[in-house]
């Protein structure tokens, strides 16, 4: 993964929350881990292919997604609505990243993942950036290899 790719994904995630017009998001510095990152209750997984290949994942706890639903005017808060919301966030982040990175990468439709043990095996190293918003902490996980 290039520094530019990392920066683009961090920036577009930050921009998503800023456009909500509510509480600002605090994006922490990404840390590198050489194992599988823990997922939270709901995750949106995006497969990346092209000049870099791997995965980008947005993972959030139930409370964060419930607050996001309320921020966008949705009242539903069941598991289906929460899974749809995390997929929507992942879709917006990946779409905006694709616009910035151009045709050098292809991005799949996001896949919802419910539960901490249901994710795929990610290529290492993995960059994990905490995102704190509305008293909740989720994570942006980036696991890309140059091809």
Please state the CA-atom Rg, rounded to the nearest Å: 14 Å
Summarize the biggest pleated sheet.
8 strands, antiparallel
Low-confidence stretches: none
Strand fraction: 25-35%
End-to-end CA span:
9 Å
Q: Helix-strand pattern, N to C?
A: HEEEEHHEEEE
Helix content: 25-40%
- The structural class is alpha+beta
- The count of DSSP E runs of length 2 or more, i.e. the number of strands, is 8
Mean pLDDT: 89
Note the total helix count. Answer: 3
- The general outline is globular
Task: Explain what this protein looks like in three dimensions.
- This protein has 147 residues and is an alpha+beta fold.
- Helices cover 35% and strands 33% of the residues.
- The chain has 3 helices and 8 strands; from the N terminus they run αββββααββββ.
- It has helices at 3-20, 62-71, 79-101; strands at residues 26-27, 31-33, 42-50, 52-60, 105-107, 111-114, 126-133, 136-146.
- α1 (3-20) crosses α3 (79-101) and α2 crosses α3.
- The radius of gyration is 14 Å and the shape is globular.
- The relative contact order is 0.30.
């Amino acid at each position: 993964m290039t520094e530019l790719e990392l920066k683009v994904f961090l920036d577009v995630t930050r921009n998503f929350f800023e456009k909500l017009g509510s509480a600002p998001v605090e994006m922490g510095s990404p840390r590198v881990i050489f194992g599988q990152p823990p997922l939270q209750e709901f995750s949106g997984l995006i497969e990346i292919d092209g000049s870099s290949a791997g995965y980008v994942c947005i993972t959030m706890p139930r409370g964060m997604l419930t607050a996001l639903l309320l921020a966008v005017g949705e009242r539903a808060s069941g598991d289906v609505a929460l899974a749809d919301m995390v997929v929507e966030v992942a879709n917006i982040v990946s779409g905006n990243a694709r616009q910035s990175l151009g045709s050098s990468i292809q991005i799949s439709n996001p896949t919802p993942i419910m539960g901490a043990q249901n994710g795929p095996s990610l290529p290492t190293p993995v960059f994990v950036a905490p995102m704190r918003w509305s008293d909740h902490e989720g994570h942006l996980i980036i696991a890309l290899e140059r091809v």
